[in-house]
Amino acid sequence: MTAKLVLVGCGHMGRAMLSGWIGSGRIAPTEVVVVEPNEDLRAKAAALGCAAVAGTEGLPADIFPKIVVIAVKPQAIRDVLAGYARFGNGATTFVSIAAGTSVATFESILGEKTPVIRCMPNLPAAIGKGMMVVFANGHVSDKARDFVAGLLAASGEVASVDDERLMDAVTAVSGSGPGYVFHFIEALIAAARTAGLPAETAARLAVQTVYGAATMAATSSEEPGVLRQQVTSHKGTTAAGLDVLMGDEALTRLITETVDAARRRSIELGS
Ligand SMILES: NC(=O)C1=CN([C@@H]2O[C@H](COP(=O)(O)OP(=O)(O)OC[C@H]3O[C@@H](n4cnc5c(N)ncnc54)[C@H](OP(=O)(O)O)[C@@H]3O)[C@@H](O)[C@H]2O)C=CC1
Ligand SMILES: O=C(O)[C@@H]1CCC=N1
Prior knowledge:
- Residues 164-269 form the Pyrroline-5-carboxylate reductase dimerisation domain.
- With 271 residues, this protein is α/β, with parallel strands linked by helices.
- 50% of the residues lie in helices and 13% in strands.
- The protein is elongated, with a radius of gyration of 21 Å.
- The site of NADPH dihydro-nicotinamide-adenine-dinucleotide phosphate (NDP) has 25 residues, from helix 1.
């Protein structure tokens, strides 16, 4: 069978990436088979033009995929992987987006010569603005690495790390990061409401402010700290606000604790 890619799990992140791959034309939907127990999610995969089956028993007996992407929860990985062991130790490259789960776990279940790429994406991959960070084991061929890098580039920016242990920090920063930013937006909306703005205006101001500032930080040649200073008039309103956020390094300490908690959870999920 000619399927190039099997996507295992088509939930939030799996579907976000799948739509990017197909939308960019980097892979044809007819080259993808999705394995997903949830009927509604299978229907969404089918709407993209992919074959969708409920479990491994639905895969064609003669299928020999180039790539198997594992996009299930870390807690389910060990059980799920057993069903794909027949593709291990061979020409199929496994790509895992699961938090915490190490290459060694994949090798122990699929065979120690199995090509494995860990990738930590983030949710903005759904709109082509993701941050994907990869770590590959020594069995991944240059050809497979290039093919996967091309697929991932459809979802946003791609970076790599040489030390797998850094994937826990990556997960805590860019993998979980959109969650922190969404909460910051929620908090800014709540504060805007407290300051008297109507709900719709509060939401519009908060979202556009974060969007505009993030776009400026991404495109400006200036460091974020310099941009911050450009907003901050001497003895003005921003200075008054930043005294609260930056006093005693309040926000830096909170974000450092936040990232550390997520990093420690990533380590736990992998053990
Ligand atoms: N959400 C995010 O922003 C990010 C998530 N990740 C990683 O992506 C992975 C998936 O997370 P997320 O998409 O949020 O989770 P979801 O729960 O949304 O998606 C996982 C999907 O896998 C399905 N599934 C369960 N068992 C199997 C199986 N045996 N075969 C095929 N599919 C199965 C689940 O179905 P059911 O619900 O019926 O069990 C579910 O639809 C996780 O490992 C997470 O660490 C990484 C970066 C960011
Ligand atoms: O919350 C999680 O565990 C996953 C991994 C990174 C983002 N979501």
